[in-house]
């Protein structure tokens, strides 16, 4: 059960996702020489109350910040005046090895992605941003990777570093290998775009099913012990359901994300217990809650789409590296 720390009812708070020092907020450093991009990133990310966003217009401005402050995620443009984004990622990871890095690029070529991953990046974002929600979802996914310390991400970086070293030594991949990696990059971007698609199950609330279906989701109502709950992407249960704790425990470390709806009459003890369990919460039963629920579900589905797509991208990088070491016939 993957969860985030943001709580939207009855007040907003957050818990640092893997940060040292016990801070309540997760910290994001955004580096871009275009003021409009910095403004967009700040406005989008600061919608999440548990994110603290710092902006820099160049790598030279960012490096003193990285030397003095802890950051959880670095989001940087590839093409910067002076030191470039790839070099900044490498230096940032040297200063803060647990930092997650995401590169902004206008075009995801095999060379740029290999270089970014070799420097220590774990993802990239295409500019201009066609779907602004992707930026928030990728930052959230980066925070989850930082907390989980997923081995596959570090393996992908190591494979990319080996591929970059082979290319730098004069070896080259066959044209078919370049074409395969380019095709996988396009498939990755499409998979992220389609990440909003997914199955949602609701326990004990027909009205919630209606709200989600009206918003365009594939949502069904299921009983709390239905085995199908383990095969959907998101499970939604209300605090008013007496079995919500049992359900949450059963789905712990299982595939679905679990979202807890808290009505205005929700018991404070339930909310505190949900916070302790680090469950996603969203207020419901009000007009504001009816708007927040579909948006929260969209973000959960998009994060899952990003994570699935990244697994395929890591495999594509490994295949590319192997094609350099052992060229295709």
Give a written overview of the molecule.
One of its GO terms (biological process) is phosphorelay signal transduction system. InterPro entries: Bact_response_regulator (IPR050595), CheY-like_superfamily (IPR011006), Sig_transdc_resp-reg_receiver (IPR001789). Keywords: Phosphoprotein. The structure is a single chain. By secondary structure, this protein is of the alpha/beta class. The N terminus is likely disordered. The chain has two domains: 166 residues, Rossmann fold; 109 residues, Response regulator (Rossmann fold, 3-Layer(aba) Sandwich). Helix content is 49%, strand content 16%. The protein has a five-stranded parallel beta sheet with strand order 2-1-3-4-5, with helices on both faces. Strands 7-6-8-9-10 form a five-stranded parallel beta sheet, with helices on both faces. Helix 4 crosses helix 6, helix 5 crosses helix 11 and helix 7 runs antiparallel to helix 11.
Q: What's a concise summary of this model?
A:
49% of the residues lie in helices and 16% in strands.
